[in-house]
């Protein structure tokens, strides 16, 4: 499958966002996040919410890959909140 790695630039408000991977053939952006501290968990939530707003202006399908090294304390709550956010945007 053909993809681009950090080549797309999406302007949203006064900021430019760069998805990690984009797949034009399936209208999809993929973003990876790495959680290696308690502080990072909170930062990732804000980053993902921002990314959703920006990426959804260009891509219909968004995939977020979260690699947790043991710092996300309540995984179901973490997933549910972000799933709800994505569902509301559709």
Q: What does this 3D model show about the protein?
A:
- With 90 residues, the chain is α+β, with helices and mostly antiparallel strands.
- 37% of the residues lie in helices and 30% in strands.
- It contains two helices and six strands; from the N terminus they run βββββαβα.
- The strands form two sheets. Strands 1-4-5-6 form a four-stranded mixed beta sheet, with helices on one face. The chain has a two-stranded antiparallel sheet with strand order 2-3.
- The longest helix has 18 residues, at 38-55.
- The protein is globular, with a radius of gyration of 13 Å.
- 11% of the residues are buried.
- The mean pLDDT is 89.
Sheet with most strands: strand arrangement: 1-4-5-6
Q: What distance lies between the first and last C-alpha atoms, to the nearest angstrom?
A: 25 Å
Order of helices and strands: EEEEEHEH
Question: What is the residue-averaged pLDDT?
Answer: 89
The description of the largest β-sheet is: 4 strands, mixed
- How many individual helices? 2
Estimated radius of gyration: 13 Å
Instruction: Specify the overall morphology.
Output: globular
The SS-based structural class is alpha+beta
């Amino acid at each position: 499958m053909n993809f681009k790695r950090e080549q797309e630039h999406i302007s949203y408000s006064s900021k430019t966002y760069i998805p990690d991977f984009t797949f034009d053939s399936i209208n999809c952006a993929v973003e990876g996040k790495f959680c290696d501290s308690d502080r990072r968990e909170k930062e990732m939530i804000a980053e993902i919410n921002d990314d959703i707003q920006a990426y959804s202006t260009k891509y219909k399908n968004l995939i977020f890959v979260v690699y947790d090294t043991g710092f996300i304390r309540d995984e179901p709550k973490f997933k549910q909140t972000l799933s709800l956010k994505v569902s509301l945007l559709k």
